[in-house]
């Protein structure tokens, strides 16, 4: 793990003697007392950190050294801050100083000191004490607290809020509400550091305050926000930025502090907020300095003062409207444009929070949100901004009685269709769907019909989003979409290849330069095949379950079978099919299950030619075909014609061994009067004849060229199915017995053409002799091959409520030798 040199240093650090360690402590104290701290001091601090961290035992530094190292936290050189913080994190606090967060510590607060303070908080009481001290520092006059320490106070409070919200008392919450209001709404509107007016007599007294500017260069006409720019910023402007960065987290959390319940119901929050006054405060200090009042500021007038919590909500609302207003300005730099987008996302999310708290704000916010959507909806570069807007429409559109159709057309239409290769958008959109799954199912009918579009994310980057679709897929399965969704899942590798072709067609020539022409890109652009690809790229369900020329499509995409994206996509399909069938079987009726059986039989041979993919799909089909028929045995009679047609095709024995074996087993097991009264002797006879013909053909001829010998499991399953059918119609017993006797006679001569392995042949013959022996007593054969439910269902030897298991265990213990 470590190099030889590193291991040697660690060993030395662990084995240092106490006397040597005390000498090292004394030497380090002398170094720290010097006026200049040079490289020797840095080396000594690094060695001290190694000594402290190399052992699992926590060491306590001498008080004098502890004090010297702690003083380095306020060093102007950051490397000393880093080293001192690292050393102090490895030590216990001095005796009697646990949780001792005094004014001196807070005055030295920086990012490294903040980390240290949090790491030394060993209990909730320590966190509460730290919170109280931090909040007292916020109450102090600015002259009493160093300016730089205030900028680190809010981040550490935000961290504490995340770790343990209950550490804040009601008084703490009220205080911070008031401070956030001051920082958000009443930060100075002049640039920090001042600016010179120019001229010969320029000096300190001639410097005039310069107002902050908007991103387009215009003079800022309203209160300061994160989208105001200048040559320098004042302390309260920096606190404005910090306050906005933690505002949403604070709004989502501080109610849990007041109520002691972090999962407060939204309806309860709305009920609480509706009982409060919705008036606005008129104690505006925003009119000081004679600033120009915008529409946002002009609306804030009322007859009385709001409580701190409601006042913060109102100021947050105004702040976000101001940000939306500022985002319409043309920024000169790309970084500022990106900042506008980020602030828009945060502003809309905060508006959503405050509207959840106070339903009356919905009607004030919606005109602004609606205008913002109209402005951004045509530009897909704002897609990640439009998702919070969609969240706002979902949460509040019904209350405001607004039409959300255009929003969902964009979210479920253009986003997946045109931005399927945007990894960030895919993550955020799928997260949006997962968080709002129930609301979307009940209130947005476009959701369940949009699965052809949504699956493009999966087809493009399966490993990254498969976990999301594991959660989403059950919600997309309905009686109206199940069949088409099954076809779409089976065609996912084709969709993956088509998306790759779509992307390549926009930036690459049709043929590879200097190489052979690729068939797939040419076919993608060929008008004759365009309809096939357009069906795969469709945006909504309902245009048809599948297409007629699937085999043609698979031929066109044959060369894409080894493309990495296509292979990765194919590997996820079996998992999704299991989820699909598990969802269907919980609530589907027999009519739908019957239709799905037909799809499984049809599509078992209509898949993109990826060998492992085909085997896995057939394995999934086989397992769920058994589940369907076990749950509803009457399905075998309903689909007897199609099942017999599939089982009677000898070619399926060689190409679809897995599903073919299960179809034969299902026919032999459930084609019985005890399972369905409609099962007639004629139906049993026709099934027997179809299976008999297949069994005779594969055991009397050589396998087709290029095909392997039929699997022993297929042969034995066919023999067992024939025996079961004959036990239900005794007229068929002689035919089965004749075949089994011939089989035994043929195999006496040695190897046969249809079975290359001698052990397999022995197993087949043994099975045939067992069945032949059973059929000599038809009554016994039926009870053994097709036992009634009351025999197979109880399983007395496993039932712990009866005495049989106890007796079996007792007999076992008696018969076993001690």
Largest sheet: none
**Helix/strand structural class:** mainly alpha
By DSSP, the count of extended strands is: 0
Put simply, the count of helices is 42
Which range best describes the helical content: under 10%, 10-25%, 25-40%, 40-55%, 55-70% or over 70%? Answer: 55-70%
Gyration radius (Cα, Å) is 38 Å
Low-confidence stretches: 94-101, 194-202, 256-304, 510-517
Beta percentage is under 5%
Query: How much is the average pLDDT?
Result: 82
List keywords for this structure.
818 residues; mainly alpha; Adaptor related protein complex 5 subunit zeta 1; TPR_AP5Z1_N; AP5Z1_ARM; TPR_AP5Z1_C
Write the layout of secondary structure elements.
Blueprint (H helix, E strand, L loop, with lengths): L3 H11 L3 H16 L5 H15 L9 H9 L6 H12 L13 H5 L3 H9 L4 H16 L7 H17 L6 H16 L49 H25 L6 H9 L20 H4 L9 H19 L7 H24 L3 H16 L6 H18 L4 H15 L3 H13 L1 H7 L2 H4 L1 H10 L1 H15 L5 H9 L1 H16 L11 H7 L4 H7 L13 H7 L7 H24 L2 H14 L7 H21 L2 H5 L1 H8 L3 H5 L1 H14 L10 H18 L13 H17 L4 H15 L10 H18 L2 H8 L3 H4 L11 H12 L3
Task: Characterise this structure.
The protein is mainly alpha-helical and 818 residues long. α17 packs parallel to α19 (423-435), α25 packs across α26 and α29 (564-587) packs parallel to α31 (611-631). It starts with a helix and ends with a helix. 34% of the residues are buried. The model is unreliable at 94-101, 194-202, 256-304 and 510-517 (pLDDT under 50). This is Adaptor related protein complex 5 subunit zeta 1. Residues 1-298 form the AP-5 complex subunit zeta-1 N-terminal TPR domain. It holds the Pfam family SPG48.
């Amino acid at each position: 793990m470590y190099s030889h040199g590193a291991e040697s240093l660690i060993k030395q650090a662990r084995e240092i003697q106490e006397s040597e360690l005390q000498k090292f402590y004394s030497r380090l104290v002398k170094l720290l007392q010097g006026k200049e701290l040079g490289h020797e001091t840095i080396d000594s601090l690094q060695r001290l950190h190694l000594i402290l961290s190399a052992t699992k035992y926590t060491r306590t530094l001498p008080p004098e050294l502890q004090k010297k190292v702690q003083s380095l936290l306020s060093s102007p050189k950051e490397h000393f801050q880093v080293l001192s913080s690292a050393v102090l994190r490895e030590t216990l606090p001095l005796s009697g100083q646990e949780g001792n967060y005094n004014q001196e510590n807070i005055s030295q607060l920086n990012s490294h000191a903040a980390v240290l303070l949090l790491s030394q908080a060993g209990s909730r009481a320590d966190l509460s004490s730290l919170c109280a001290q931090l909040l007292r520092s916020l109450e102090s006059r600015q002259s009493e607290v160093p300016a730089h320490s205030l900028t680190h106070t809010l981040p550490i409070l935000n961290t504490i809020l995340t770790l343990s919200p209950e550490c804040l008392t009601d008084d703490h919450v009220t205080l911070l509400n008031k401070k956030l209001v001051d920082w958000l709404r009443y930060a100075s509107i002049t640039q920090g550091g001042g600016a010179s007016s120019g001229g010969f007599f320029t000096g300190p007294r001639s410097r005039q305050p310069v107002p902050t500017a908007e991103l387009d260069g215009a003079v800022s006409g309203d209160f300061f926000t994160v989208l105001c720019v200048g040559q320098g910023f004042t302390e309260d402007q920096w606190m404005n930025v910090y306050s906005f960065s933690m505002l949403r987290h604070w709004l989502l959390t501080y109610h849990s502090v007041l109520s002691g319940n972090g999962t407060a119901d939204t309806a309860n929050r709305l009920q609480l907020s509706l009982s409060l006054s919705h008036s606005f405060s008129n104690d505006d200090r925003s009119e000081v300095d004679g600033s120009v009042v915008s529409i946002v500021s002009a609306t804030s007038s009322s007859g009385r003062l709001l409580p701190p919590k409601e006042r913060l909500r109102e100021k947050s609302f105004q702040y976000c409207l101001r940000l939306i207003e500022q985002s319409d300005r043309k920024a000169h730099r790309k970084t500022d444009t990106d900042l506008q987008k980020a602030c828009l996302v945060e502003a809309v999310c905060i508006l959503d929070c405050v509207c959840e708290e106070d339903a009356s704000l919905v009607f004030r916010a919606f005109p602004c949100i609606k205008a913002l959507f109209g402005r951004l909806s045509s530009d897909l570069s704002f897609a990640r901004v439009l998702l919070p807007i969609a969240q706002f429409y979902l949460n509040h559109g019904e209350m405001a009685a607004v039409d959300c159709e255009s929003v969902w057309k964009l979210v479920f239409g253009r986003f997946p269709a045109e931005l399927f290769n945007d990894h960030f958008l895919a993550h955020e959109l799928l997260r949006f769907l997962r968080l709002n799954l129930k609301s979307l199912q009940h209130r947005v009918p476009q959701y369940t019909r949009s699965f052809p579009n949504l699956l493009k994310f999966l087809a493009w980057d399966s490993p990254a989003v498969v976990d999301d679709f594991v959660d989403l897929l059950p919600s997309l399965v309905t009686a109206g979409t199940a069949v088409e969704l099954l076809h779409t899942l089976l065609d996912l590798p084709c969709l993956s290849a088509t998306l790759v072709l779509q992307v390549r067609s926009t930036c690459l020539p049709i043929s590879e330069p200097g190489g052979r022409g690729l068939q797939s890109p040419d076919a993608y652009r060929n008008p004759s095949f365009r309809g096939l690809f357009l069906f795969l790229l469709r945006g909504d369900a309902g245009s048809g379950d599948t297409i007629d020329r699937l085999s043609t499509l698979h031929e066109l995409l044959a060369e894409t079978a080894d493309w990495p994206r296509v292979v990765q996509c194919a590997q996820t399909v079996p998992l999704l099919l299991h989820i699909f069938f598990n969802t269907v079987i919980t609530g589907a009726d027999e009519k739908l299950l019957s239709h799905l059986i037909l799809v499984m039989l049809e599509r078992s041979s209509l898949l993109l030619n990826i060998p492992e993919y085909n085997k896995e799909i057939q394995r999934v089909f086989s397992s769920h075909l058994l589940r369907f028929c076990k749950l509803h045995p009457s399905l075998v009679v309903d689909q007897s014609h199609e099942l017999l047609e599939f089982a009677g095709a000898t070619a399926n024995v060689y190409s679809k061994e897995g599903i073919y074996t299960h179809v034969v087993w299902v026919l032999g097991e459930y084609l019985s009067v005890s399972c369905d009264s409609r099962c007639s002797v004629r139906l049993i006879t026709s099934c027997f004849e179809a299976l008999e013909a297949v069994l005779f053909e594969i055991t009397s001829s050589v396998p087709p060229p290029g095909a392997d010998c039929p699997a022993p499991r297929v042969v034995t399953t066919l023999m067992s199915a024939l025996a079961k059918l004959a036990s239900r119609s005794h007229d068929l017993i002689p035919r089965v017995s004749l075949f089994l006797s011939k089989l035994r006679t043929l195999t006496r001569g040695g190897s046969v053409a249809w079975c290359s392995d001698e052990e397999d042949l022995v197993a087949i013959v043994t099975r045939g002799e067992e069945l032949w022996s059973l059929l000599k007593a038809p009554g016994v054969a039926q009870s053994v091959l097709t036992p009634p439910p009351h025999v197979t269902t109880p399983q007395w030897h496993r039932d712990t409520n009866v005495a049989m298991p106890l007796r079996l265990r007792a007999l076992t213990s008696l018969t076993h030798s001690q």
